[in-house]
Structures are given as structure tokens and as C-alpha cells.
């Protein structure tokens, strides 16, 4: 397995690995990641071995750091070849990230069957190149065969965490569990593990409106802003039991079940989970994601009538009216929810692993 750099690449790889291990308890799995990236921590936490490559992407903010990039690329390809030679895998599955390129390239050089799982609506250059040799490319959006080989491209969805839908959880129970009023309209705002500063800044100014309109907010700030917000808003939050502010939500199924609407960035895995949950959503794509893939993801949902999209640069002007319309317009909420549920693929992990092994058995 190879995938990393962000949770959007790591968690699908881990989900696929867990499904393989469930079917074949004696299977030997090895991850290839990038040194100093979050996969070097998250993968062992999930119970899998990982080896790191000395690989990085092009640094647009500090071009001086790119002088060592050619060496890192050559070194990582050599290391990947050594890992593939020593481990002798039967298959290699890549889910994107810096290390995925060298890993799948090395596997191809050694004649090992490769598979790609592409989470986004607009794939990166590396996956488009690697797809030439891949046995199959599993996508999260339909119509991706104009990027990848037509006969080997399958729309199966993104692997998501098990039980994320919280289908046995009720708003009453989950709101009580979170210390909130069971009867009040509840907004869930999530911006990823690091957070979304523009969204955080909006909520900071909108707190009086929440109280005035008798609304509840589950506010995941992310790591970057949490300490500053906690200190700066200490007095306000102490007087507002209708606002639950936290750095990170570990139990997302409970948070989703408690919410009437969700505000989120437009990362691929976040969108896939939201589709399974089926809540009305406002997406604020992160504008600096690679190849602006979050905007592409969000536009796919907007064109299907499955999400309201507000550009990050226009958040100060357009977010409030979009939010208040969604709060007051029950038919719009119902329409968004129904359209979003249509694109959900809750069995994606199982279907991906099915296809991998069906392909191998046909050899």
C-alpha cells in the first residue's frame, strides 16, 4: 500500500488494507510513505508496518528548498525499487501522495500488478501517468474515464470509515450526549485536522447571531486556531451553552447525527463521508489545494444539486446569506440531502477489494 501526505490519501489506504486483512488474516501488508509526513504516525497507529521515502513535492513558497528535490526524487525511486525487490508483493495499491508515485513506478518496473484509487474529481499528473500500467483505476466520481484508460476505470467511490453514517443514532440522543439542547437547530462546522481559518473567523463574528436566533453550533476549530480562539472567546463561550467548540472531533458519527446541516471544506474523503451521512451541506473549498482539486470536488456536487458552494475568497460576503437561507428553507435542505444521498457509495471499500482480487484470480 502507498498513500500519504494528508488524511485524504492515508485513510482510504488504511481502509483498503483493513478490508484485505479482514478477508485474509495471514496477509502481509507493508505501506510505503514519505518521511516526516503524517502517514509515518497514522499507519503504525492503525497496526501496519511502513517504510519511508526521502521524497517531497515542489515548494512554491520557498523555491530555495527545491534545489535538493532532484536528489530526493532519484533517491526515493531507488529506495522504492529496493523495497519492492525485498518485500516481493503480489499487488501494490496506490492512493496518492508523494510516495505513491515512486512506489507504483517501482512495482511496474518489477512486473507487479498495480491499482490506483483516485479520490478527487480532478486527478493529479502522477496518477494519470501511473494509470497507463495500472490494472484498474478506482474513482470517486463518474465520468473519470476521460482522464484514465476507459476499460480499466471504475466508479466505485471513496473508502470511508465504518459506521460513519450513525444510522442507529438519533438527534435527541447524540445532542444530549454532546451536552446540547435536543430541540434546537444544530450546525456542525468542520475544517479538517488543521482547521479552516476563514470559516473559524466567520463563526467568531457570528456568535451573537447564534444566540439571537436560538441556534446551536458544534465547532471543530482544528489544531491551528484552537488555542487562540479558546483564549480570545473564553468569556463569550462560558455564557453560550449552545456552542460546543473543540479542536478535534474523534467521534464523527455522533457529530454528524446531531447536526441538521454541515459546513465543511471540500476534501474528497470529507465529501464521501458526507454523502453517506446525507446531511445538507455548505462546502467552502480550500483554494490552495493541489490542482485546486477541492473546488473541482465541490463543483461536481453543486452541479448535481447536492451541495451549496461558497468560494473561500467570497466567504465574508456570501457565506452568511447562504447559511441563513439553508437554515430557513426546509425544502432546500430536503432536496440537497436527497441528491447527496444518490451519489453515496457506502460499500466502496468492499467493492474495491472485490475487484482487486477478481482481477488477480482471472490471471
- By DSSP (H or I, 4+ residues per run), the number of helices equals 15
CATH superfamily of the largest domain: Glycogen Phosphorylase B
Arithmetic mean pLDDT? 91
Shape: globular
Largest sheet: 6 strands, parallel
User: Going across the major beta sheet, what is the strand order?
Assistant: 9-8-7-10-11-12
Instruction: Look at the helices and sheets and give the structural class.
Output: alpha/beta
Proportion in helices: 40-55%
| Parts with pLDDT < 50 across at least 5 consecutive residues | none
Radius of gyration based on Cα positions? 21 Å
Beta-strand content estimate: 5-15%
At CATH level 2, the architecture of the largest domain is: 3-Layer(aba) Sandwich
Might you state the CATH topology name of the largest domain? Rossmann fold
Give a short synopsis of this structure.
With 363 residues, the protein is of the alpha/beta class. Helix content is 46%, strand content 13%. The protein is globular, with a radius of gyration of 21 Å.
Amino acid at each position: 500500500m502507498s498513500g500519504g501526505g494528508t488524511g485524504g490519501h492515508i485513510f482510504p489506504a488504511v481502509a483498503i488494507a483493513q478490508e484485505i486483512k479482514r478477508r485474509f488474516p495471514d496477509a502481509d501488508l507493508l505501506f510505503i510513505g514519505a518521511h516526516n509526513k503524517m502517514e509515518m504516525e497514522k499507519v503504525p497507529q492503525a497496526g501496519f508496518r511502513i517504510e519511508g521515502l526521502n521524497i517531497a513535492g515542489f515548494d512554491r513558497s520557498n523555491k530555495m528548498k527545491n534545489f535538493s528535490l532532484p536528489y530526493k526524487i532519484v533517491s526515493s525511486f531507488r529506495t522504492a525499487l529496493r523495497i519492492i525487490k525485498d518485500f516481493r508483493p503480489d499487488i501494490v495499491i496506490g492512493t496518492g501522495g508523494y510516495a505513491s508515485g515512486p512506489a507504483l513506478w517501482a512495482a511496474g518496473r518489477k512486473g507487479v500488478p498495480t491499482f490506483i484509487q483516485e479520490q478527487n474529481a480532478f486527478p493529479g499528473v502522477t496518477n494519470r501517468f501511473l494509470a497507463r500500467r495500472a490494472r484498474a483505476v478506482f474513482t470517486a466520481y463518474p465520468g473519470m474515464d476521460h482522464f484514465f484508460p476507459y476499460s480499466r476505470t471504475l466508479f466505485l467511490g471513496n473508502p470511508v470509515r465504518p459506521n460513519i453514517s450513525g444510522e442507529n443514532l438519533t438527534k435527541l440522543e447524540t445532542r444530549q450526549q454532546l451536552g446540547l439542547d435536543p430541540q434546537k437547530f444544530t450546525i456542525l462546522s468542520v475544517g479538517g485536522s488543521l482547521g479552516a481559518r476563514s470559516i473559524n473567523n466567520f463563526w467568531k463574528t457570528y456568535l451573537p447571531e447564534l444566540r439571537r436566533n436560538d441556534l446551536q453550533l458544534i465547532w471543530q476549530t482544528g489544531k491551528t486556531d484552537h488555542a487562540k480562539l479558546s483564549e480570545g472567546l473564553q468569556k463569550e463561550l462560558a455564557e453560550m451553552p449552545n456552542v460546543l467548540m473543540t479542536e478535534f472531533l474523534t467521534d464523527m458519527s455522533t457529530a454528524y447525527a446531531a447536526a441538521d446541516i454541515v459546513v465543511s471544506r471540500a476534501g474528497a474523503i470529507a465529501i464521501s463521508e458526507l454523502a453517506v451521512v446525507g446531511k445538507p451541506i455548505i462546502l467552502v473549498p480550500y483554494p490552495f489545494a493541489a490542482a485546486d482539486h477541492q473546488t473541482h470536488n465541490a463543483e461536481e456536487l453543486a452541479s448535481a444539486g447536492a451541495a451549496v458552494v461558497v468560494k473561500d475568497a467570497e466567504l465574508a460576503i456570501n457565506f452568511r446569506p447562504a447559511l441563513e437561507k439553508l437554515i430557513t428553507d426546509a425544502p432546500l435542505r430536503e432536496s440537497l440531502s436527497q441528491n447527496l444521498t444518490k451519489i453515496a457509495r457506502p460499500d466502496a471499500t468492499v467493492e474495491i477489494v472485490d475487484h482487486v482480487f477478481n482481477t488477480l484470480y482471472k490471471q
